[in-house]
Specification:
This protein has 179 residues and is an all-alpha fold. Helices cover 73% and strands 0% of the residues.
Length: 179
């Protein structure tokens, strides 16, 4: 395949997006601790959906989406374990999907990769937690959340973008050596 092949870019991007999603999940707890130390949320703010992944992991937007879907379909509230498992499916599916879109775009327009994926991570935050998720009602708008939550969530998306781009570059380089 040629380097400008968007299908190859999408496949490489999907794998890179999975790695990015994994790293995003790793950086969220330390970012949460760091930002809450600098900008402590109130106990009431910590109860908001998406504001406390360390203390209320099953109260994050994807878990709330799983809960709403399960209640609508079955009339039952899913267990904490079921919400957490469903949340992981959503997290990694979204990571692979966003990575695939990014990889396809990068294959046809390398300017997308400027900033080593960090600007793309910012765009991804803007498309998800800053707009789409609040628009669905599964999380408050960024200006309604505690500042610490906005900072760690957006920061974890920057880490996602950076990791996805660095992984994408490494996979592309390995594939190029095999050609």
């Amino acid at each position: 395949m040629r380097r400008t092949d968007p299908l190859r870019g999408a496949l490489v991007g999907a794998v890179a997006g999975l790695v990015g999603a994994y790293v995003k999940s790793l950086v969220e707890p330390p970012l949460q601790k760091l930002t809450e130390k600098a900008f402590p949320p109130t106990p009431e703010q910590k109860k908001m959906i998406g504001a406390d992944p360390i203390g209320r992991q099953d109260h994050m937007p994807p878990a709330e989406m799983i809960k709403a879907a399960d209640e609508a379909l079955t009339g039952h509230t899913p267990s904490k374990d079921a919400k957490l498992k469903g949340q992981q499916v959503i997290h990694y599916t979204l990571g692979a999907t966003l990575g695939a879109a990014y990889g396809a775009l990068a294959a046809v327009n390398p300017a997308v990769t400027l900033g080593a994926g960090v600007p793309a991570g910012a765009v991804m935050y803007g498309l998800t937690h800053a707009t789409a998720v609040p628009a669905t009602g599964f999380q408050a708008w960024p200006w309604q959340l505690p500042l610490a939550a906005v900072l760690w969530e957006s920061g974890s998306h920057l880490a996602f973008g950076l990791t996805t781009e660095l992984t994408r570059r490494a996979i592309e380089a390995a594939l190029d050596r095999m050609d």
